[in-house]
Amino acid sequence: MPAPSKEPGGVRPASAAGLYYPKDADGLRCALQTLLGNGGKTAARLPKALVVPHAGYAYSGAVAASAFRTLENVAAGSIRHVVLLGPSHRVKMRGLALPSCDYFSTPFGQVPVNDEGRRRLRELGLAGIADAPHALEHSLEVQVPFLQSVLTEFDLLPIAVGLAPPEQVGRALEAVWGGPETLIVVSSDLSHHHTHVEAQALDQQTAKCIVERHSDLSESQACGADGINGLMEVARRRDLEVQLLDRRTSGDTAGDSQRVVGYGSFALYARD
Fold first, then answer.
1. Fewest C-beta atoms under 10 Å: which of 10, 92, 137, 185?
2. How many Å apart are CA 145 and CA 195, to the nearest integer?
3. Would you say residue 37 lies in a domain?
4. Where are the beta strands (DSSP E) in 3-154?
């Protein structure tokens, strides 16, 4: 685990704005309205958890929107806490890292960090404080504008995931699982750097594993495999239903077909 920040508090500024999504609020709002407006009807029930991709909006935004669109529901206003997990791309580490900041910032404004959830994970020894994994991590940040667009008032528990077994991630999720007021979001892309045809076959099998709640995905299947595996551990225990919402590659959206990244969105529901 990287060394903790010596000066807790403050705001984690947006680092992916202008790179992964529009930098100005008006441009961002227009982009999200387009992405979220390109779907079907509002979902009849709210999911407990989502798995969403995290590339630039031009590449994976439409796939991510299919998941966040499930929150466009009258009951979505009841969601007050979002637990957000994503892989640490730039800082190699073991375990789970929480930031020391009080707020996450995007062009839409600041979202408060859930200090109660952060304290709980630390007291249970399930996560530590480390700002380095969060400073430039896009896998978490790109989800926040979507959340700000579809929810009302909420706080955020951002968790950067390093090398961590499913059991550890699962225990952390259980510790902050909450009730209908808490949404779990796991950020992950699928396969990387295959041809479009190869990626389609690989990602089809990975999506099948996720729908069947397997918890042994590898990094070659999904860059956020550790987060997904932990969520699937909990999904089996709680008998959550997993639905595939959308699956594409960057060859379908904004890239060439010879070297693509796969994207998938999934929603997890409590059974009636």
1. 92
2. 30
3. yes
4. 11-12, 49-52, 81-87, 96-98, 103-106, 109-112, 128-129
